[in-house]
Amino acid sequence: MTILIINGPNLNLLGVREKTIYGSQSFDQYYEELKLLYPNFALDYYQSNIEGEIINKIHECRLTHDGIVLNAAAYTHTSVAIRDAISAIDIPVIEVHISNVHKREAFRHVSLISASCVGVIAGFGLDSYRLGIEALTKLNKDK
């Protein structure tokens, strides 16, 4: 199984920014753990602070990957374009969030991308990504 993990804006600063919300581990460190946990999967990782680059990556991977685990970060709440990109592809996308967005500011309670994703996982720290991979694994088995 080939899975692409996409992280949106500011997630390149995990382990540095707002540690009380996002923890002290960098995503690169966590990604290495995921690769060890899933040695039979092809896990790829992409991060961008730029909306258009995220959209381009979603378009590209429709031909090369079985699914996407997407943390669109702040674009979750603002990007119709990312929602449309998800809707335009035929592979499943799992929306993930490190924090429980529903316990945070009101503007974070609305996701523009959720309706285009097959599911949403939030509030389990970096483990939200592992849970997203597990969800894609189950979807792939149910095909």
Automatic annotation (TrEMBL):
Binding of substrate occurs at: 71, 77, 84, 98-99, 108
The cross-references to Pfam families, in alphabetical order and at most eight, read: DHquinase_II
Active-site residues, as the UniProt record annotates them: 22, 97
UniProt similarity note = Belongs to the type-II 3-dehydroquinase family.
Report the catalytic activity: 3-dehydroquinate = 3-dehydroshikimate + H2O
What Enzyme Commission number(s) does the record list for this chain? 4.2.1.10
The enzyme's main class, written as a single word, is: lyase
Query: Main role?
Result: Catalyzes a trans-dehydration via an enolate intermediate.
Domain of life, source organism: Bacteria
Any one GO MF term held by the record is: 3-dehydroquinate dehydratase activity
Q: Name one GO biological process term.
A: amino acid biosynthetic process
HAMAP family, per the entry: AroQ
> This protein is called what?
3-dehydroquinate dehydratase
Give the positions of the site Transition state stabilizer. 17
DNA repair as a keyword?
Answer: no
Question: Record's PROSITE patterns?
Answer: DEHYDROQUINASE_II (PS01029)
Identify the NCBIfam families for this entry: aroQ (TIGR01088), PRK05395.1-2 (NF003805), PRK05395.1-3 (NF003806), PRK05395.1-4 (NF003807)
Q: Which UniProt keywords apply?
A: Amino-acid biosynthesis, Aromatic amino acid biosynthesis, Lyase
Oligomeric state and interaction partners are given as: Homododecamer.
Q: Pathway, per Swiss-Prot/TrEMBL?
A: Metabolic intermediate biosynthesis; chorismate biosynthesis; chorismate from D-erythrose 4-phosphate and phosphoenolpyruvate: step 3/7
